[in-house]
Each structure stands twice: as structure tokens, then as C-alpha cells.
Specification:
2 domains, 3-stranded mixed sheet, mainly alpha, DUF247_pln
Amino acid sequence: MHEYLEAMMELEARAHDCYSDPFYLAGGADNFVQMMLLDACFVIEFLRKCYLPELRDKDDPIFATSWIKIQICRDLMLLENQLPFFVLLQLFNMSETSSNPGPQFAKLAETPLRQVLPKDDYFPSPSSKCESSKHFLDLVHNIFSRDQAYPNQISIPINCGTCVKMPCVMELEEAGVKCQAVKKEAGVKFQAVKKGKEISIFEINFEDGVLKIPEFEVSDLTEIFLRNIIAYEQHIGNDHKTKYFTDFTSFVDALINTKEDVSKLCGHQIITNLLGDDEEVACMFNKLGQGKILEPSSFYYSQVCQKLNDHCQKRWNKARAKLMRDYFNTPWASVSTSAAIFLLLLTLAQTLASLIPLFV
């Protein structure tokens, strides 16, 4: 224990500088070092036992009750609870033995991230980003960097209005964005992108009337996680890389105005609503959009928003969508409409045939 305390004392000044607001504990630096050591030991042992179930005691209260583990994972994502990674890495490396090496810290760090992310199927490996990250929230931001996770999306700087104003789901469908799962609302076509190779949760595209959005889950942990990662992205300033989670939630917020929009996205299997209430999901994303500062010059979905707005401004798209919705929304409606058109053409042909002798 003395060895660990000495190591923490060497890191005390560096760790103290990581916090924006100075704070003081009764007992000064010694108590700060002890607090840092206890917190770091708890986090490392928690991550180890999450990754290696054989290390858990039979009556361990944390793992005997599943909700406690989930709450701890949630707390590790709170902005005010972040512990500098260099502290965790130092203790982790000191606790490892050459005779019995365990998993790398990067693998352990995945545990709370996979628990709270909206969809862990799109989770890139954090191994190359872990040591350069400041804490858990910074690790989340780093591992979803464009160069590693999704190089195909291109952000095009456009005017500010386009990045914050976009039709909602219902308006898009009325404008001709066709629905794949709910065909009777033919319009901009929504398509859930299933998990696969090199797919990111942020990989949203609009081509040929099809809006493709990777499927994601909304649970009790979603709002807490998104609020904290957005707060961190707002904190890091404008000179940093694209604020992916901020831009993603802003895009979804634009898509969702009411519970009907959520219901459509759930129907297309884009959103898996674990909350059960579509109104609650709509309120969550609408509230997440309040108070955020967007950067039009680096807004990640500028190109997608521009394409959607251009599509909705074309009258033909709306007219075609209304025609398909009103007259071709079911097989029977299609047959009836086709039969009516056929009879109309047949009547017209008969009329012309009867008039021809009068002019011969």
C-alpha cells in the first residue's frame, strides 16, 4: 500500500491540475491522494471483475444485484466523476505481474462504455486511443473519431440555417421520402442500417429518396450518457475535432417533433424503444437539443440536411408521395386504381372510335 501511495503522491499535482475548479479537502494533499487512490482502486477492481467473472466473490453485492453494476457504469460516465486516466493506468500497471498478465486496460475500459452506449454493435476497439485519452468521456469521443470509425461521411460547410432546420419524420414522408417498413406512408424512404463491418452509429446517409439511419436503442441510461458526453464536447471548445454526439442528437432532434415521429422510427426498426413510451423518447431528444451550440462550418450532417431540404422543396416529390399514399397504398387500392384508369382509357377509346366516322 505504501508503494501505491508514493506513486499517487508523485501524480498529485498533475491530477489536481486536471480539474477546472480548484478544490480543497480537509487534510490537504494527503487526503486528496488517499481519495484518488481509493477511487482508482475501486474502478480498476470493478472493471477487472466485470471482464473476468471468475474474480467475483459469490456474495459480492455489486454483481449479485444487476442494477448496482449498471448504476456504477452510469456513474463512471458522469462528467463530474471523471478520474484522470493516467492515474488509473499507473495503478493498473503497478498491479499487473509479469508471471500472470491480465487483459490490457483498454479491454477493461470497454465495460462501462458498452453498458451505456445506445448501440454497442458499432463500438470500435479503443486499444489505440486509451493511453492518449484523458478519462472515460474523452475515450468515448476519441474512439469514434472519423479516421477510425467512419471515414466515408463528408461534412460540407453550408449556411447556419440548414444545419438547425430540417423537416421532421412526418414531413419528410409527406415530401416523398418513402418508408420501407410502413409502405402506406410512401415518401422519403427510411431504412435501418443493420450492424455490419465498419458501420458507425453516426453513419447517416440520404441517397435516391432513402434515408439510412443505423439502428440504436433508447433506455433509462441513454439520456444521462448523452447529456454528459454532449456537455464534454461543448466543454472542449471549437478548436477540437467534430462534436459527433452533439451533431447526432441535433439531427435526431430535428427528425423528432412528436411521438408520431418516434413511432415511425420504431416502426422502421431504427429506434428500439426500451422506455416503452414514444412521448418520453420525443421529449428526451427535444430537451437534449436545448442550450447546445452547433458549429455550422463543421456540422457533421450538413450534406444530409441539405439533400433532405432540397428534396422536400420539390413539388413533384410531394405530389408523387400523395398519389402513392392515396391511391397505391395497398395491393387492392393499386388494383382498383389501375382498373379505373383502364376503364377510363377504354371509354376514351370507344368515344374516339364513335367520332371517327363523323369526320370521314
